[in-house]
Automatic annotation (TrEMBL):
PROSITE patterns: PTS_EIIA_TYPE_4. Residues 2-122 form the PTS EIIA type-4 domain. Component of the dihydroxyacetone kinase complex, which is responsible for the phosphoenolpyruvate (PEP)-dependent phosphorylation of dihydroxyacetone. DhaM serves as the phosphoryl donor. Is phosphorylated by phosphoenolpyruvate in an EI- and HPr-dependent reaction, and a phosphorelay system on histidine residues finally leads to phosphoryl transfer to DhaL and dihydroxyacetone. It comes from Enterococcus rivorum. Homodimer. The dihydroxyacetone kinase complex is composed of a homodimer of DhaM, a homodimer of DhaK and the subunit DhaL. Keywords: Kinase, Transferase. This is phosphoenolpyruvate--glycerone phosphotransferase. Gene3D superfamilies: Phosphotransferase system, mannose-type IIA component (3.40.50.510). Pfam families: EIIA-man. GO terms for biological process: glycerol catabolic process; phosphoenolpyruvate-dependent sugar phosphotransferase system. Coiled coil: none annotated. GO terms for cellular component: membrane. It is an enzyme of class 2 (transferase).
C-alpha cells in the first residue's frame, strides 16, 4: 500500500488511542504516531514527526493533528522529507478514522479529500 496515515497529538495517550481505534478498521494501512514529548510531557516534537514520516512504509502520507502548534511542527517536518505529505486541517479523530478506513478499501486520495471536507476546522 503506497498511502499511509500519520497522527500528531500533544498527548502520547491520545495519539496511541487514535491509532488503536483506527487499526480496528484499517489493519493493513501503515500508521505512525508522533505524540507527546519526552518524559510524558504535553507537546509535539519536530523530530518525532519526522521519525513518524520516515518510519511509515507508505510514500504518500495523510497527516492529522490536534492543535495549531502541532501544525507548525508538521509543516517544518514536511520540508525535510522526500515523501508526499497531505496535511489535513480537520477534526482529528473523525478524519483519521475516516481516511484510514477508506485507505483500507483502496479509495482514491481525491475521494478521501472530498469525504473529509465536512470535517474541516474553520
Amino acid at each position: 500500500m503506497s498511502n499511509g496515515v500519520v497522527i500528531v497529538s500533544h498527548v502520547k495517550e491520545i495519539g496511541e488511542g487514535i491509532e488503536r481505534l483506527i487499526r480496528e478498521v484499517a489493519k493493513d494501512v501503515p500508521i505512525t504516531v508522533a505524540a507527546g514529548l519526552e518524559q510524558g510531557e504535553v507537546g509535539t516534537s519536530f523530530e518525532k514527526i519526522l521519525t513518524a514520516f520516515e518510519s511509515n512504509t507508505a510514500e504518500t502520507l495523510l497527516a492529522f493533528y490536534d492543535l495549531g502548534s502541532a501544525k507548525m511542527n508538521l509543516e517544518m517536518a514536511m520540508d525535510m522529507t522526500e515523501k508526499e505529505i497531505l496535511l489535513f486541517d480537520t477534526a482529528l479523530v473523525e478524519s483519521a478514522y475516516t481516511a484510514a478506513a477508506l485507505l483500507q478499501v483502496e479509495t482514491s486520495i481525491e475521494t478521501i479529500k472530498e469525504q473529509l471536507l465536512p470535517l474541516k476546522i474553520k
